[in-house]
Amino acid sequence: MVKIYDTTLRDGAQGEGVSFSLEDKLKIAKKLDALGMHYIEGGWPGSNPKDIGFFQKVRSLRLKNSKIASFGSTRKPHKKAGEDTNLQTLVRAGTDVITVFGKSWLLHVKEVLKTTPEENMEMIRDTIAFLKEKTKEVFYDAEHFFDGFRDDPGYALKTLKAAEEAGADVIVLCDTNGGAMPDEVRAAFREAGKTVKVTLGAHMHNDSDAAVANTIVAVKEGAVQVQGTINGYGERSGNANLCSVIPNLKLKLGIDCVSDRSLAMLTEVSHFVAEIANLVPQVNQPYVGLSAFVHKAGVHADAVQKQSRSYEHIEPEKVGNKRRILVSELSGKSSIVFKAEEFGLDLKKDDKKIGSILKKLKDLEHEGYQFEGAEASFELMVRKIIGQHKKAFNLKGFKVVVEKHDGKMVSEATIRLTVKGKEEHTAALGDGPVNALDNALRKALEQFYPVLKEMHLTDYKVRIINPETATGAKTRVLIESSDDEDTWGTVGVSENIIEASWQALVDSIEYKLMKEEKSSH
């Protein structure tokens, strides 16, 4: 059994661009508890009022699986632990677990703390002994252990012995600078295991892109607690990514750390924390990324449908993810058949329509279309080719005017179209030309199709396809739309950004209407 110690709320919050409010931290704590984390490090109560507030309010959450840990440092040089303000604040936080870090590297002892090696050892002993009298569990983070072990292994190991003698329940070897290599971690853990008998843990940073590998090596060398963060968030290059560490332990090494049910929540928790942090999820992140089980090349797509193990190292559902087959100019007939099945269409590989779909797909991608983020447009294209598409309206024409009045930009769109045999002529204002066009189109259609009131545009992206042609370049517009149940993407391409936007807007509306028609049958 390896216990997971999550430090997203403290170490993760130190990452550039990450800032959690008190309410954010409480929401994440509940999610981490549901995931089955054994320990959740809430922060440093001596550093700011927000962390003090967290420790006061987290008690009311009634967590089922996780213990809350507070975090701090050893006492200051030449002071008694009982007189240290930060240690008193740690005790007042009232947590069952207190984690403190101390120095293992003589460089830090002499140049940062400006004290002696002997005093540093006393700081470790005094601090842990004091805290052991006040709380149930005390974890000692041996900061910069691998740097210290590299420079002076004897002294680094003596600091661990001091922590053990003072009563530390777990001693965690920390690669604080993130520069250690797996062989160094292996050698250091072996020596640490010979020096102390207390439980060992691992806390790795990712500055050499080796944090996950180093964590796995540490476990193989006896570590029974691993520390890290969701999505690897953390200072500089981040911490060991628990979204990789956990499935590596459970699925690759067969080591119990969370339940199967909890493991299946991993993708959900990854995306939840990214959303709270207001960071875009890394699509190619192992296990939980949107692209982690995506297949694009025709050969891959064909093989994975016959035998998933041929191009997937695990079943994506085990970590709450799913397989996706992308369609592009690299696609073969198998990819088209797979996507058709997703759309509820019964097409076989020998159907002549498959060839027509492939040709149309490749022609459109040559023109600059891309359907990887616009599967709604691709489904509409397929249905048009096989004769299962019904036009919602016919455009007669539109006009978009952008003017500046009293220092403000004003956009107005006018549309003429026919709907169910009736001609509509409407106009609407908007924050920009595309918004005005969207508003005018909805105004004309909603009286005929009231369900359109349920959908809204959630994202709008513009990409210049061939910038070398300067102002004559083609523009690709990707639009994301949502209703209460679903999110879908559509695409348009043209030398004119308004025309490209119009194409994507029309597809988004026609997809919504098609979706409603399918659900009603």
Structure, explained:
The chain is an alpha/beta fold. It folds into three domains: 275 residues, TIM Barrel (Alpha-Beta Barrel); 74 residues, no CATH class; 127 residues, 2-Layer Sandwich (Double Stranded RNA Binding Domain). 40% of the residues lie in helices and 21% in strands. It is built from 18 helices and 16 strands. The chain has an eight-stranded parallel β-barrel with strand order 1-2-3-4-5-6-7-8, surrounded by nine helices. The protein has a three-stranded antiparallel beta sheet with strand order 11-12-13, with helices on one face. Strands 14-15-16 form a three-stranded antiparallel beta sheet. β12 and β13 form a beta hairpin. α1 crosses α2, α1 packs antiparallel against α12 and α16 crosses α18. It is elongated, with a radius of gyration of 29 Å. It starts with a strand and ends with a helix.
The oligomerization state is: single chain
Number of helices: 18
How helical, in percent, are the residues?
Answer: 25-40%
What's the main sheet like?
Answer: 8 strands, parallel, barrel
The first-to-last residue Cα distance is 51 Å
By CATH, the topology of the largest domain is TIM Barrel
Q: How much strand?
A: 15-25%
Descriptive keywords:
single chain; 16 strands; 521 residues; alpha/beta; Double Stranded RNA Binding Domain; TIM Barrel; 3 domains
Question: Could you give a short description of this structure?
Answer:
By secondary structure, the chain is α/β, with parallel strands linked by helices.
